[in-house]
């Protein structure tokens, strides 16, 4: 019985510590975070005031308009 209780406690703690509850943004290519990784850039901000971190290859390229 103690082993079962210990196992359930450990599983409950691991489920709380496991990352992965991040919100997706920018057509599901980005993730809302407080900090972006080195290979990501901020393009827009999420609704929860976090940065939408997107890899540069998924960001739209700027086009120069001839006048």
TrEMBL record:
Residues 24-53 form the Beta-defensin domain. Residues 1-20 form the signal peptide. Belongs to the beta-defensin family. PANTHER family: BETA-DEFENSIN 123 (PTHR15001:SF3), BETA-DEFENSIN 123-RELATED (PTHR15001). It is found in: Secreted. InterPro entries: Beta-defensin, Beta_defensin_dom. Has antibacterial activity. One of its GO terms (biological process) is defense response to bacterium. Keywords: Antibiotic, Antimicrobial, Defensin, Disulfide bond, Secreted, Signal. This is Beta-defensin. One of its GO terms (cellular component) is extracellular region.
């Amino acid at each position: 019985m103690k082993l079962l209780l210990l196992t359930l406690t450990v599983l409950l703690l691991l489920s709380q510590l496991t990352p992965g509850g991040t919100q997706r943004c920018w057509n599901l290519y980005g993730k809302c975070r407080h900090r972006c990784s080195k290979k990501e850039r901020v393009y827009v901000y999420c609704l929860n005031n976090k940065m939408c971190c997107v890899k540069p290859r998924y960001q739209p390229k700027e086009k120069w308009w001839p006048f």
